[in-house]
Write a structure and sequence with these properties.
single chain, alpha/beta, 11 helices, about 25% helix
C-alpha cells in the first residue's frame, strides 16, 4: 500500500482536513486584517528579479478560449460564456446605427460565470466549517453583496512574479500525460523540479501540467468539468505550505485529484488550502504551448503576469495569464 493510501485509510476526510488545517494554517501570519494570504510571500524585489528572466522575448497565453464550446456542463449553474453582438458591421453597412458622416462600429457583451474557464479561485471561494480566510465568519465576510473583505479586486495588482512550470505529465506520466485519478504527491513535484533543473521557492507562482487538457482536446471535453482527473494529492498540503509559494495553477478543472482520496469527500485540499492556508489557486490553465517551449529550449522559470479582473466583491475571476521568457 502506498503512503498516500495508508494516510487515507487511517483517517476520515473530516479528521484529515481538521489535522491539516491546524498544521498548515496561516491565520494571523500577516495580521488579522490580511486579505492576500500567500501572495504576501511575493515581494516587490521578487517581481524585479522575475523581469530579468525575460531573455528571448517570447510570450505565451496560458488561457483557454472563452466561448460556448467550453467545458462547462451546468454543474451548480456554471455555463459556458455566451457572447452576443450588440452592434455589427451589417448594421453599419445598412445605415441602421444613426451615426453621422458614414462612421459605424461594432459592440458586444458577454455573460458568463466567473469560473467557467481559465480562472483564479479567490480567498472567499471556499470555507471550512463556516470560516473564511484568516478565521473570519463566512456569513459576514461573503454575503449576497459579494465578498466584502477578500474580493478578487484586493489582489488585482500583485499577481505578477516568477512563474515555474512543473510538467509532471512529461516527467512522471506515460506519453506526457497523467491518467485520470492520478494523485500528484510532494515527491512527484520534487522529482519534476529536479528533472527540470529548477528550484521552487518563496513567492513563486507554480504551474502544474498534468496533460489532461491535451487529452480532452483530442478526445472531447467529456467529464473534464467536474469528472475524474489527475491533480494534487491531499497529502501535498505540507509541500504547498512549507514551500511558501504565492500561488499555484493546474490545467485541470478542480486542481486536486478526482475522485478525491477519501470516500464521500469533496475537494478536501481546497478546504485546507484556501480558507486556512490562504493559497491562491488557478484552474483550467492552458500550459501546452509553454510546456512545449520549455521542453525545446529549457528554462522552466519565467516572468508570469496573471492579474484577475478587479470585479468588486467577486470570489473568483477569469484571467489571461501571460508567461514571458
Amino acid at each position: 500500500m502506498s503512503g498516500t493510501a495508508e494516510h487515507a485509510a487511517a483517517r476520515t476526510a473530516e479528521e484529515a482536513v481538521a489535522e491539516a488545517a491546524r498544521a498548515y494554517s496561516n491565520w494571523g501570519r500577516w495580521g488579522g486584517d490580511d486579505v492576500r494570504g500567500t501572495l504576501n510571500f511575493l515581494e516587490p524585489a521578487m517581481r524585479a528579479r522575475a523581469a530579468a528572466l525575460v531573455v528571448r522575448g517570447e510570450s505565451f497565453s496560458l488561457s483557454q478560449r472563452f466561448d460556448m464550446n467550453g467545458p462547462q456542463k451546468g454543474w451548480r449553474r456554471r455555463t459556458n460564456p455566451v457572447h452576443t453582438m450588440l452592434d455589427t458591421g451589417t448594421d453599419a453597412a445598412l445605415g441602421k446605427q444613426g451615426f453621422p458622416h458614414g462612421i459605424g462600429g461594432a459592440d458586444d457583451v458577454i455573460a458568463m460565470p466567473l469560473q467557467c474557464s481559465t480562472q483564479w479561485d479567490g480567498l472567499g471561494h471556499i470555507f471550512d466549517h463556516g470560516k473564511a480566510w484568516n478565521g473570519r465568519d463566512a456569513a459576514e465576510a461573503v454575503t449576497s453583496d459579494g465578498d466584502l473583505v477578500t474580493g478578487i479586486e484586493t489582489i488585482a495588482e500583485v499577481v505578477a512574479g516568477r512563474g515555474v512550470l512543473l510538467d509532471v505529465g512529461r516527467v512522471v506520466g506515460d506519453g506526457g500525460e497523467l491518467p485520470d485519478g492520478f494523485a500528484v504527491t510532494a515527491e512527484h513535484l520534487e522529482t519534476t523540479a529536479a528533472a527540470h533543473g529548477v528550484e521552487v521557492g518563496r513567492g513563486d507562482i507554480v504551474c502544474v501540467r498534468t496533460g489532461q487538457l491535451a487529452r480532452v482536446r483530442r478526445e472531447g471535453w467529456g467529464d473534464y468539468a467536474g469528472g475524474p482527473a489527475p491533480g494534487l494529492s491531499f497529502w501535498s498540503a505540507g509541500w504547498l505550505h512549507r514551500s511558501q509559494i504565492a500561488a499555484i495553477a493546474t490545467d485541470t478543472w478542480g486542481f486536486e485529484v478526482r475522485p478525491n482520496e477519501f470516500p464521500d469527500a469533496f475537494q478536501p485540499l481546497h478546504q485546507v488550502a484556501i480558507p486556512n492556508m490562504g493559497l491562491l489557486i488557478g484552474e483550467m490553465w492552458d500550459l501546452e504551448a509553454l510546456a512545449a517551449d520549455c521542453a525545446a529550449h529549457g528554462g522552466y522559470a519565467f516572468q508570469l503576469v496573471a492579474a484577475p479582473l478587479p470585479i468588486t466583491g467577486a470570489v473568483g475571476s477569469p484571467v489571461n495569464p501571460i508567461a514571458l521568457k
